[in-house]
């Protein structure tokens, strides 16, 4: 007599709000039954995932990447004195402070004006590509990466402050007129666009594949 077949393994417990038929409010966090259109607490529209999250994040990120080039290649400021007229980019300001003995200030400007915006865009691009391709690995690491982007985003306007500091400290004559160059607007737009891209990204999309969902 053959032994009975082994019992099937128990189904994994449902651990998400979506699996329990609940939907969370993006504004106040209250959970409501699926099918509810308005949050009973704050009145905000309810969505299981932010509508068109990846599309908006991708569009904002691409725009920031495009503007990142003129922000670093075009003049950040234009200095005009009685005898000379000069144009300085962010990088030329970094070089100036480095060669004149202000290495700490040069490193500060380089980090906040060139390195950190570039790393933010690279991190956001990694998250968007990983969700679109559905890679099943390192979800916790990517969630940690998103939390880092969120934390850095709170200090995003510090990038603009550092560039303003550079404009005020770069060498110019006593009878000089200093005005912002075309790179200033591009750099400010990069900062704002990366902030909006991080806000538009829905981190719950990272975990959707675990439950067989792909709501983008």
How would you characterize the overall build of this protein?
The chain crosses the membrane at residues 58-77, 97-130, 151-170, 182-201. Its main location: membrane. This is Paraquat-inducible protein A. Keywords: Cell inner membrane, Cell membrane, Membrane, Transmembrane, Transmembrane helix. A three-stranded antiparallel sheet has the order 4-3-5. A two-stranded antiparallel ribbon has the order 1-2. With 216 residues, it is mainly alpha-helical. The longest helix is centred in the middle third of the chain and has 31 residues, at 103-133. A hairpin with a 4-residue loop joins strand 3 and strand 4 (85-88). It folds into two domains: 15-47, no CATH class; 49-211, Up-down Bundle (Butyryl-CoA Dehydrogenase, subunit A, domain 3). The protein is 50% helix and 8% strand. The radius of gyration is 24 Å and the shape is elongated. The chain has helices spanning 53-73, 90-99, 103-133, 139-153, 157-169, 182-200, and strands at residues 22-24, 31-33, 77-80, 85-88, 177-180. It starts with 21 loop residues before the first strand and ends in a 16-residue tail after the last helix.
């Amino acid at each position: 007599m053959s032994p009975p077949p082994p019992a099937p393994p128990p189904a994994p417990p449902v651990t998400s709000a979506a699996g329990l038929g609940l939907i969370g409010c993006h504004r106040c966090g209250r959970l409501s039954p699926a099918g509810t259109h308005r949050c009973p607490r704050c009145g905000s529209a309810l969505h299981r995932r932010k509508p068109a999250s990846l599309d908006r994040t991708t569009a904002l990120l691409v725009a920031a990447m495009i503007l990142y080039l003129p922000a670093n290649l075009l003049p950040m400021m234009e200095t005009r004195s009685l005898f000379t007229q000069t144009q300085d980019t962010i990088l030329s300001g970094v070089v100036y402070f480095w060669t004149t003995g202000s290495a700490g200030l040069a490193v500060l400007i380089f980090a906040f004006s060139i390195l950190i915006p570039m790393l933010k865009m690279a991190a956001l691009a990694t998250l968007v590509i990983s969700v679109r391709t559905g890679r099943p690995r390192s979800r916790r690491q990517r969630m940690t990466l998103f939390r880092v982007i969120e934390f850095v985003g709170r200090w995003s306007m510090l990038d603009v402050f550092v560039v303003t500091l550079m404009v005020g400290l770069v060498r110019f004559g006593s009878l000089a007129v200093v005005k912002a160059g075309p790179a200033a607007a591009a750099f400010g737009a990069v900062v704002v666009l990366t902030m909006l891209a991080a806000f538009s990204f829905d981190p719950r999309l990272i975990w959707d594949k675990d439950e067989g969902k792909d709501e983008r």
